[in-house]
From TrEMBL:
CDD domains tied to this protein: GT4_WcaC-like
SUPFAM superfamilies linked to this entry: UDP-Glycosyltransferase/glycogen phosphorylase
Organism from which the protein derives: Mucilaginibacter boryungensis
Glycosyl transferase family domain span: 234-387
InterPro entries linked to this entry: Glyco_trans_1, Glyco_trans_4-like_N
Ranges for domain Glycosyltransferase subfamily 4-like N-terminal: 13-224
Pfam families, per the entry: Glyco_transf_4, Glycos_transf_1
Name of the molecule in the record: Glycosyltransferase family 4 protein
Gene3D superfamilies given in the database record: Glycogen Phosphorylase B
């Protein structure tokens, strides 16, 4: 069984990380699998780029800017949605790639930012091979947005998109929806996989994917890398006082609208008088705009951390990991924290309830309630059963999200198609 995974990149976000972990998990189960990306950024020995020569690399760069710039300049309503909407008008035909032609099954993941256009997807589908498409967000069944927010137009037909400057019945989102309808009318052989039960339920209600086979299979995680570390050793290494209570927050892009930083600020303000000098905060992730000095506690800002081993140490030295995301599928950060035995406080939204069991391994706060989010942080920091929370957190991952468990679910799916 030869399986080719297809993703825009092998590094630089949640989808690439999940895809690389699945590649490793399938290899561990002896599946002949490779990952095809636009530009290779890691040293993975089974990762192959489509853009190999100078002209191919220039074309890939051109496709990225040719798709993004017109949208940013002419279509995006605000700067916050510049990368929240993908038109998929630009891309590269990869149907002739050896890894595509020789594969028994094609497994699509996140293919935006100028890698594959809708027409390129049609070419892949027309090869007649079984296709599995893992959805890391809502894009496959919307007119172009990756997360719809409060909009429900994808349930019927996209148009009047709130992300656009000039929304109307036949706007950019409507055109994107029609292109995807054309793609899907060409085949019924695609099986869609979502990383969370929330996204599976949402996809089943969508006008585009209604009636398709949709499975919910989580992302895998390496529970050897992400495992509890010696708290005293890790705190000493990172210069964190051993006697402080540490709140950890991290995201690929801290200022992403979906990550809900405003709710974290409000929640921490409500805890200011309770903990005074007792609590400190560690933050990691890309941060160009957020001024950490507005937070009411001392902050250690670490910016982007590329090493999985370093990130595992940060989870392990923390008393609680917080993620105030208001829209998310199955965030890797939550799973990583739990695997390291660190309780998680998050809003009860998206795929997060698949991982966080309320009051058992963390706290699910009322959606968009900074007061309840603060209560969740207080629950974990003041818990008399900290060890039980930590054990429950680790066990949740061991029982549901290991490489072996997830790989076996995908292998069963592949076999059902072959």
């Amino acid at each position: 069984m030869k399986v080719t995974l297809i993703n825009t990149s092998d590094a630089g976000g949640g989808a690439p990380a999940a895809c690389m972990r699945l590649l490793k998990a399938l290899q561990f189960r002896q599946v002949d699998t490779h990952l095809l990306v636009q530009k290779k950024q890691t040293g993975g020995d089974r990762v192959y780029p489509t853009a190999t020569g100078i002209w191919a690399k220039l074309r890939a760069t051109y496709n990225f800017f040719a798709e993004r710039i017109p949208f940013i300049v002419f279509d995006a309503d605000t700067k916050w949605v510049r990368f929240a909407f993908s038109t998929a008008k630009r891309g590269t035909d990869i149907s002739g790639e050896a890894l595509v032609k020789n594969a028994d099954l094609l497994h699509l993941h996140w293919i935006n930012q100028g890698f594959l256009s809708t027409n390129d997807l049609i070419r892949l589908v027309r090869l007649g091979k079984p296709v599995v498409w893992t959805l890391h967000d809502m894009w496959a069944f919307t007119g172009g947005c990756h997360y719809a927010g409060d909009c429900n137009h994808f349930l019927h037909q996209c148009g009047y998109c709130w992300m656009l400057k000039d929304p109307d019945a036949k706007d950019l989102s409507n055109k994107g929806w029609l292109r995807k309808m054309h793609l899907l009318s060409d085949t019924e052989s695609i099986v869609f996989v979502t990383c969370s039960n929330w996204l599976a339920d949402t996809a089943r209600q969508s006008s585009l994917l209604k009636g398709y086979r949709i499975e919910a299979i989580p992302n895998p995680i390496d529970t050897e890398i992400f495992s509890p570390k010696n708290n005293n050793v890790t705190r000493q290494k990172w210069g964190i006082p051993p006697h402080k209570k540490i709140i950890l927050f991290g995201a690929a892009n801290i200022m992403d609208r979906r990550k809900g930083i405003v709710y974290l600020i409000e929640a921490l303000e409500k805890l200011r008088d309770t903990y005074t000098d007792e609590v400190e905060i560690v933050i990691f992730g890309k941060n160009k705009l957020f001024d950490v000095t507005v937070l009411p506690f001392k902050v250690y800002e670490l910016n982007v951390i590329n090493s999985q081993y370093d990130i595992a140490e940060l989870y392990s030295l923390a008393d609680v990991f917080v993620t105030p995301a208001i829209e998310d599928n199955l965030p890797n950060t939550v799973m990583e924290a739990l695997a390291c035995g660190t309780p998680v406080v998050a809003f009860n939204t998206g795929g997060i309830p698949d991982m966080v069991d309320h009051l058992q391994n963390g706290y699910l706060a009322e959606y968009k309630s900074s007061a309840d989010f603060a209560a969740g942080i207080r629950f974990v920091l003041d818990s008399s059963n900290a060890q039980t929370l930590a054990v429950n957190a680790r066990n949740k991952v061991l029982q549901n999200f290991t490489n072996e468990i997830v790989a076996d679910k995908y292998i069963a799916l592949y076999k059902s198609l072959l």
